[in-house]
Amino acid sequence: MLIVEEPGVQFICKLSDMNVKVSQSAELVCNLSRDNCDGAWFKDGNKLLSRDGLTISKDGASHKLKIDSCGADDTGKYRFEAEGRKTEAMLIVEEPEVQFISGLSNMNAKFGQSAELVCKLSRDNCNGAWFKDGNKLLPRDGLTISKDGACHKLKIDSCGADDTGKYRFEAEGRKTEAMLIVEDPPRFSEDALANFCKPVIVKAGQNASFKMLFEGGEPSKVQWYKEGEELLDDINVKLEKTSSHSRLLLSMCQRKDTGEIKIKVKNDFGTIEAVSKLIVLDKPSPPQGPVEVAENSASCINIKWRLPKDDGGSELQGYALERQQVGRNTWMKLGLIPTAAAAYKDTKVEHGRKYCYRISAVNEEGVSESMETEDIIAGIKAYPGPPAPPKVASAVNDCINLTWVAPTNTGGSHILGYNLEKRKRSSNMWSPVNPQDEPIQEKKFAVKDVIVGMAYEFRVSAINVAGVGEPSIPSDFVTARDPKKPPGKVVDLKVTDSTYTTLSLAWTKPTEEQGVQDEAKGYFVEIRPAESLDWNRCNTNPIIMTTFTVKGLKSMAVYWARVIATNDGGEGVPQDLDNYVIAMPPPVRPKFTDGKIKSFMVVRAGNAVRININFEASPWPDVVWLKDSVPISKRVTVSNTDGMSQLLIPSSERSDTGVYTIIIKNLIGQETFSVEIRVTDDPKPPGPVELEENVSGTVTVNWEPSPDEKRDDRLHYMVSERDSTKQTWHTVADRLFNNKFTACNIIPGHEYNFRVYAKNDMGMSEPAESPVWGTTRTRDKFVVKMPEYRPCNLESPPAFLVSLKMHTAPEGYECYMSCAVAGNPRPRVTWYHDNVSLNTNTNYYISNTCGVCSMLILRVRPKDHGEYTVMAENTLGRAECSTKLTVRE
């Protein structure tokens, strides 16, 4: 019998250790050598079965254990066993790093109130520590540290000044910080406040002291006030301050110092005030006049007066009374009069004699200055003075109501009544209103004996025991008619013109409606700044015209305006403008008003540069000057006035050369204008001059450039020549923009001198002298020798000895080009510009002298820019030479 045994199972792939984060899934896998083999899973020796969150599966020879969401308790050693074979691996579930879900926040707390700092972590099972200003905190009385899951709290039951600081919570290397600021406003204790509020009473000339204790956070500011005016250190005022109290010392107090004393203590968290009172005792002020003569007879004078304005801070004890008979030097004391009386009846007088009385108030501190009466004649009465002019209280068709004020001079006796008189307009006659034997008792009267539409004026006279006094000044004329209705609103109110300081308004008078609104007799104009709620009246008296110009406005300020119609019936309803008005001229886009402004200026170095630009713009524009598109330097002064801007360079330098641009911009638009300023001076002379002969019969003059050539693109050169046989200098070339020139027609045997000048817009430099140039004529001894005849071919194709140079010339200037060519037979020379022949073009001056080919362009134009070619050709060949001309604007 044949028995086939299966081999023992083997692990093709064993379990592997693995690390996962909390909440992540984990999968343990191993592979056996056979498919038909089952096994079991274990954790820490305990067999595992499939459940929620844990799945055990088999796929052929592959066995898996999957944990969907790992927790901390899933950490352990896992084992798989099959047919006595096993494999193990460690699964470690790592807690994630703790994070702050919400950190600490800065907070402010009131002194004495509670404060709570709270933060929340991402895990519940995490502890931490609290710190204040770097020092670790532990629970104590008034400070509680608690933990509720992931929430950590620190609570201070009653905040004090020492609790202000930076608080920090740390957990597993993470930290969060916040500032706790305990707001500690100044405070007064009840006892200190009660003591301070008690009035301080001193006598005149003595010192007064106020002291107040306070608490609160530093720094604190202490201010003292007397009757609302702050007190500062002075001769009679001394202020002391510490961190816990302040003292006010007032020396040499006077009665006028009596009043409210207030202390104000302030810090960053609040302000507190306390009020006390200073009472300075002194003599009273004199009694008030005028003295009234209540009775005057041959045997009695009865006088009355008013109480003094100031009793000196203490109760009056009475009045000291003295009498003098006019004509004598002595005063007789009449005694102390009780305070309540304020009157005295003198019965010891003689008929017809004059008496004068002196009255003084008396209190505990002394006797006041005296009040002296006028001379009173015993038994003779004085008439009262005139009352004030009567005023019209109201007027209707059949009645005019008047009021007036009693005269200040009563004549020393009681006013018994008044007489009233009236007078018509255009009449000189005054007629009584009341019967002469029936004086008006009150200071008002209704005059009914009037004619409708008639204008009247009134005057009043006072009556006392002596009789009728002088009449008052007449009142204003008043017409007997029913009151008028106020006018309506003005119509079509509009702005006709405006400037930076004025506003012109126009309107149409309101319409009349019988019984509703009457005709307007005048107008008031009012304006109000936009930031204010108060209307300001522009005219004190009503204007008759329907136009008005408001002056004194603030430039670019916003105003509201309205017009009020008025008549005898009063003021009508205001009519406002539909919109606000800005104090500025009508909007104008910036523009330059001077059409003759120069756009190019040449200035000698050291001279002043002044550019005046006139413009129009509204509202007032922003004016900016730029030099070469960047802001101007501080050396340049800009002055802006109404409609003009001036740029000034007091002493110009070459570095000031550039394009200056003014930009004028407002709300409507902007405009720019540029001026090119070239600051230059007489140029410096060129460098050494050298001479050379490249072609027979010519001299090429070479020189080093002037030092000013690099900074002055308008600099050019002039060459002068002197023949030794003529002894005079003449110009052979001008407006040269290169450093070379070829002089022709040089005669052998003559000596030549050359001078080179640098020139610009300012002038010409000193010349640079060349060495003497000359060729001596040599004569050989005449020997006749018949040469052996040999044929000689002198022909040659064209060849350029001196090539054309590159040229750069400003627009409008000359340009001179030259080259040297040789060849036999004499070559034919043709000039080309961009492959177009120039030999027949009259705008170019072309010459060919002894092989020196030249071309002159009198005025360089933009179209002259490009390539220039010289072609020389004869029967033996052809040669070309090219250059390029650049035209600069």
How many helices does DSSP assign?
A: 1
What is the alpha-carbon Rg in Å?
Answer: 59 Å
CATH class of the largest domain: Mainly Beta
Oligomer: single chain
Q: Describe the main β-sheet briefly.
A: 6 strands, antiparallel
Query: In terms of per-residue confidence, which ranges show pLDDT below 50 for 5 or more consecutive residues?
Result: none
Anisotropy-based shape: flat
In round numbers, the mean pLDDT is 87
CATH superfamily of the largest domain: Immunoglobulins
What is the third-level CATH name, the topology of the largest domain? Immunoglobulin-like
Helical content (DSSP H or I, runs of 4+):
under 10%
How many strands in all? 78
Domain Fibronectin type-III: 286-385, 386-482, 486-587, 685-779
Domain Ig-like: 7-92, 96-181, 590-680, 798-886
Protein name: Immunoglobulin-like and fibronectin type III domain-containing protein 1
Keywords: Cytoplasm, Disulfide bond, Immunoglobulin domain, Nucleus, Repeat
Features:
889 residues; mainly beta; Immunoglobulin-like; 6-stranded antiparallel beta sheet; 1 helix; 78 strands; flat
Question: How would you describe this protein?
Answer:
With 889 residues, the protein is mostly beta strands. The protein folds into 9 domains: 11-94, Immunoglobulins (Immunoglobulin-like); 104-183, Immunoglobulin-like (Sandwich), CATH 2.60.40.10; 190-281, Sandwich (Immunoglobulin-like); 288-339 and 349-376, Immunoglobulin-like, CATH 2.60.40; 391-479, Immunoglobulins (Immunoglobulin-like), CATH 2.60.40.10; 491-582, Sandwich (Immunoglobulin-like), CATH 2.60.40.10; 588-679, Immunoglobulin-like (Sandwich), CATH 2.60.40.10; 682-778, Immunoglobulin-like (Sandwich), CATH 2.60.40; and more. Helix content is 1%, strand content 50%. Strands 29, 30, 32, 33, 34 and 35 form a 6-stranded antiparallel β-sheet that branches. The longest helix is centred in the N-terminal third of the chain and has 8 residues, at 190-197. The protein is flat. The termini are far apart.
